[in-house]
Specification:
heterodimer, A: alpha+beta, Beta-Lactamase, 5-stranded antiparallel β-sheet, rod-shaped, disordered N terminus, B: 136 residues, alpha/beta, Rossmann fold, 5-stranded parallel β-sheet, 46% helix
Chain lengths: 594, 136
């Protein structure tokens, strides 16, 4: 945007020349006419039309008048202060001498010019000078001793003359000053107008600068948004009408910006059935409400939506939705930043399918192995020798181990893909712990490890998935047994605790603290080096102590245990000292009512 | 195999076995006979399972879920929709044992669901339980 630059008038800050005594032109302007007047006077005297009674006085009078005129004309460029009054006063002096030297009343007409000049002076200083000057001129013949030659004015004339000069001067002076005042006002108004024009121009300049900055900012934003070609950035009004549409959106949805902005709604690019389902599940009144429901409630929302491109193809897009505010902070619409996940989701599905397929293909032969082993080992008609039974037990144990590994891999894949679901029910954790001890008993006895169980006699019920909690507990107990050398002890304890808001565990109830079940599995084993404890729950991680001591395992047990605990809203932590032992503590929320 | 079969004899309860894995099919057959029942047909795919069920009208059908032709779930649904076969007891066997899969199997009309790998003893117990209420 550009504002026409206004023409600036030459600003005048000076006072008006008519009102400033310093620049008053009256005196200088007197030069030419007075020169003419006094020259004509000299001519009249030379021709005898005006009789001269005293040549010396008349000559001095003319010389004073003309000389003063000449001086004032030369010095006209530096009229300062009352100096401008000097010329008419000199003229008055010259006229007085001329009047005395000629004794002619005609000389009194010459008074008009300097009197006019004095009375029109911007200050009132001209008035007494005019009055006094007139009196001096009228009295000149007496002062110079030429009174007898002059038709001496009567005393009345001597009084009336200065009086007329005074009254006339006042009138002229007032008139001049009024005109000058008006001129001053006009000059002031002109100055104010100039100042206003200057302000307008200044505002116009500021506006121009501001609009340039805004345009530059908008250009920066546009260029940033336009540089994004792999993500769709779509901005809408509150009613869903599209206002921003970047090249990423053009590429993803196959429509150019001019065909979309202000013409289409974001809803046109969504699958209607998906929006309808979302509207039903969120209780939203309109499809747009369903689309932005979570962003409205949470402040932002990221989830997969199905975009329908111009050619009708469907894209699975991870869309981050945020509300958009205008410059006053008022809600103005919505932003939709989308990443095309179509290929990624297809890959994830393939991975899922692959894991499912592999686990199925591995389980089926394992089913045959275990089934036929069972038939052989349980065949009462053809009993096995002890040696045969021992060999087949080894086969069975390893088949079971393979089966657990397949199960763990499948479970890990389910956790990854978010398809891991719990079947919640009331579960007595005390029974789960006792069952875990029972499962590990044989292995522990074989390894020379004692298992001590300390659980509440009346049980401790939590809400959870019994199978998964059993799996988690089994993992912790079997780990403890595996990592404890012969002669060591594994202690399983289960207690009721209260968890404060900061996560700390309390032995007694306190306001704000929630009841939890605390399961601790403590061993006197080889421990885990401090530097490795943070990685312990990472998939396929095996501690250096496990590898050094050739403890069997692949590093999935704790990953799975952690996932199960987290899915139940619980926590899993450990304290370990290398060479002394490890304690895993699991907390699970307890329904306060139970 | 035959020795095991003869050892357990053939009973009055008639059972159809369907699984695309020959070894598993034989194992199930043995378990069914251990449970004191007779295997009337043993087939490797879903379509044959459905046809055999309609022609033989067994007391119990032991169906693998993942079969070519028609899945165990589809056979199960088809049997339940036909009044002539809706009374057949159905035991599903599957390598998938997630709660979702079990729920899908039971909602398709199965009477019981057994995850692979199963123990022979467990299968025998299931077959006995499912045929216990069938009039000889």
């Amino acid at each position: 945007m550009s504002v026409a630059v206004l023409d600036r008038p030459a600003a005048s800050a000076r006072p008006h020349r008519l009102t400033d005594p310093a620049t008053w032109p009256g005196a200088a302007r007197l030069a030419l006419p007075s020169t003419v007047l006094f020259s004509v006077t000299a001519l009249l005297m030379a021709t005898g039309w005006v009789p001269v009674v005293d040549r010396v006085l008349a000559g001095i009078g003319l010389a004073v008048a003309l000389g003063a005129t000449a001086v004032s004309w030369v010095a006209r460029r530096s009229p300062v202060g009352l100096r401008s009054l000097a010329l008419p006063v000199a003229h008055l002096a010259g006229i007085a001498l001329l009047y005395a030297g000629t004794a002619s009343a005609a000389m009194l007409f010459l008074l008009l010019s300097p009197l006019w000049t004095l009375s029109s002076h911007p200050t009132r200083a001209g008035i007494p000078l005019a009055t006094g000057g007139t009196a001096v001129v009228l009295l000149a013949p007496y002062l110079t001793g030429e009174a007898l030659a002059v038709a001496a004015p009567m005393p009345g004339a001597l009084l009336l003359g200065p009086l007329v000069a005074a009254v006339g001067s006042v009138a002229v002076n007032e008139n001049t000053r009024r005109v000058a005042g008006q001129a001053h006002d006009i000059a002031r108004l002109q100055r104010e107008q100039a100042a206003l024009l200057e302000q307008v121009q200044s505002r116009a300049d500021e506006l121009d600068t501001a609009s340039r900055i805004l345009a530059a900012r908008a250009q920066t934003m546009t260029s940033v948004i336009d540089a994004v070609t792999q993500q769709s950035i779509i901005g809408t009004d509150r009613d869903g009408t599209i206002r921003v549409w970047n090249p990423g959106a053009e590429r993803m949805l196959g429509l150019l910006r001019p065909d979309v902005v202000r013409k289409r709604s974001i809803l046109e690019f969504h699958e209607p059935e998906e929006l309808a389902a979302a509207a039903e599940s969120t209780g939203s009144a309109t499809p747009l409400d369903a689309l932005v429901h979570a962003a409205r409630v949470e402040g932002s929302d990221v989830r997969d939506w199905t975009y329908v491109a111009a050619d009708g193809s469907h894209r699975t897009v991870s869309v981050a939705i945020t509300p958009r505010a205008d410059d006053r902070g008022v809600h103005a619409g919505w932003n939709f930043v989308g990443t095309d996940m179509t290929e990624a989701r297809a890959t994830e599905r393939m991975k899922d399918q692959f894991v499912s397929l592999i686990s199925h293909e591995l389980r089926t032969p394992l089913s045959s192995i275990l089934g036929y082993l069972e038939l052989v080992m349980d065949d009462e008609d053809q009993p096995l020798t002890d040696e045969q039974r021992q060999y087949l037990s080894t086969v069975e144990r390893n088949a079971q181990r393979l089966l657990r590994l397949v199960g763990d891999l499948l479970f890990t894949a389910q956790v990854d893909s978010g398809r891991f679901t719990l079947q919640p029910a009331d579960v007595d954790l005390a029974a789960v712990v006792r069952a875990a001890e029972e499962t590990a008993r044989v292995a522990a006895a074989g390894a020379g490890v004692e298992i001590v169980v300390d659980v509440p006699a009346d049980g401790l019920v939590v809400s959870g998935d019994a199978v998964r909690l059993g799996q988690a507990c089994d993992n912790l107990v079997s780990n403890a047994v595996k990592f404890t050398p012969s002669g060591g002890q594994v202690r399983l304890s289960l207690e009721r605790r209260w968890q404060a808001e900061d996560g700390g565990l309390l032995e007694v109830e306190r306001p704000g603290a929630v009841p939890v079940a605390l399961l601790a599995v403590a061993d006197t084993g080889m421990g885990i080096p401090a530097g490795e404890q943070g990685e312990l729950f990472t998939r396929f991680f095996r501690s250096s102590t496990a590898r050094r001591n050739a403890v069997p395992g692949v590093g999935l047990g704790l990953t799975i245990t952690k996932a199960i605990t987290t899915a139940h809203g619980g926590t899993l932590d450990l304290v370990s000292v290398e060479g002394q032992g490890t304690t895993f503590t699991m907390t699970l929320p307890v329904d306060p009512a139970s | 195999m035959d020795s095991a079969l003869h050892a357990t004899g053939t009973g009055a309860f008639r059972v159809l076995v369907a699984d695309d894995e020959d070894d598993i099919r034989d194992l199930v057959t043995l378990a069914v006979r251990k449970a004191g029942c007779a295997v009337v047909r043993s087939v490797p795919d879903g379509a044959q399972a459905l046809a055999a069920a309609r022609s033989e009208l067994p007391d119990l059908a032991v169906l693998d879920v993942s079969m070519p032709g028609a899945t165990g779930l589809e056979v199960c649904t088809a049997l339940r929709e036909d009044p002539a076969t809706s009374g057949i007891r159905i035991l599903l066997l599957s390598a998938g044992a997630s709660p979702d899969e079990v729920a899908r199997g039971l909602s398709a009309g199965a009477d019981a669901y057994l995850a692979k790998p199963f123990t022979v003893a467990g299968l025998v117990q299931q077959v006995r339980a499912l045929t216990a209420g069938v009039a000889a």
